[in-house]
């Protein structure tokens, strides 16, 4: 849809301006795409380096051995200390544990402790339920 001038020829000047604008627009789109792809790669690289640096820091700072290794040695270390009292710490599930008695402790004492433990946990649940109701 080009306009005709007096002589019936296409108005090339209008088309030339449109073509020039489209070429400029195309170049800007290419430039924006290139910058966005570059920024995407740059951000990914920085994120990867940050994660890797964090892991190196975690390991080199001693936090790895303090938090991970020590946690794995907790139960055996605890049981070594409790053995003198004829007690043992048994790990149950992922985060909870409980005391148990070695065979030298009389059954009557063990049963009394178990009974008291159940009552204690029932009272604790009741207190928590009462507190939750009041909120």
From TrEMBL:
It holds the Pfam family Spo7. InterPro entries: NEP1-R1, Spo7. The chain crosses the membrane at residues 38-59. It comes from the Eukaryota. Its main location: cytoplasm. It is a multi-pass membrane protein. It is found in: Cytoplasm; Nucleus membrane. Keywords: Cytoplasm, Lipid metabolism, Membrane, Nucleus, Transmembrane, Transmembrane helix. Belongs to the CNEP1R1 family. PANTHER family: NUCLEAR ENVELOPE PHOSPHATASE-REGULATORY SUBUNIT 1 (PTHR20996:SF1). This is Transmembrane protein 188. It comes from Helicostylum pulchrum.
């Amino acid at each position: 849809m080009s306009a005709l001038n007096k002589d019936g020829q296409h108005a090339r000047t209008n088309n030339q301006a449109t073509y020039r604008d489209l070429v400029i627009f195309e170049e800007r789109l290419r430039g924006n795409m290139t910058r966005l792809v570059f920024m995407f790669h740059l951000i990914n690289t920085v994120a990867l380096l940050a994660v890797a640096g964090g892991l190196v820091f975690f390991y080199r700072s001693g936090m790895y051995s303090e938090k991970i290794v020590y946690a794995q040695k907790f139960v055996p270390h605890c049981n070594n200390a409790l053995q003198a009292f004829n007690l043992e710490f048994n790990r149950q599930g992922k985060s909870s544990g409980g005391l148990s008695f070695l065979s030298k402790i009389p059954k009557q004492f063990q049963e009394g402790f178990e009974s008291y433990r159940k009552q204690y946990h029932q009272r604790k649940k009741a207190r928590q339920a009462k507190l939750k109701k009041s909120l």
